[in-house]
Amino acid sequence: MNIRRWVITLVMLLLSVAGIFGYKESLNLARAQQGQGMPEPSATVVAELAQTVSYQANTKVSGEVQAYKQLELNNELAGKISKLNLISGSRVEAGDLLLELDHSEESARVIGLKARLELNRHTYKRYLRLQKITKSVTSWWIRPKPKLRSHNLSWRY
């Protein structure tokens, strides 16, 4: 009984597919017959006569030009920009100063290092003077002792 249901379902499915295929084929056949009865569509053609004209090498035009390519600038040092020396879209040449970075921290650090250098120079000079004084005092304080010769001396009491 179960096989009978499967066979009926399969036959119904095959009939449905065959019906859809047949209907689609009849539509295609009708469209082909309808196209045979109609004339081919005509195309409009416009003809122009060729004329010779003089060639101009240059043409002057007024307008606005936008750059095709862009340039992205990157700096090796990070910091705040204190001065921008160019206007957007202006022409720049090689070696032009485009912007200035704020260098107040670096300037303060340089001033501090110069002060430390000056202090170290004074300390060095002081050490040299102390060394000279120490040598002179040491040479006065520690004099070479005369060598004593041992003699056979007899002491009597």
From TrEMBL:
<protein>
    <submittedName>
        <fullName>Efflux RND transporter periplasmic adaptor subunit</fullName>
    </submittedName>
</protein>
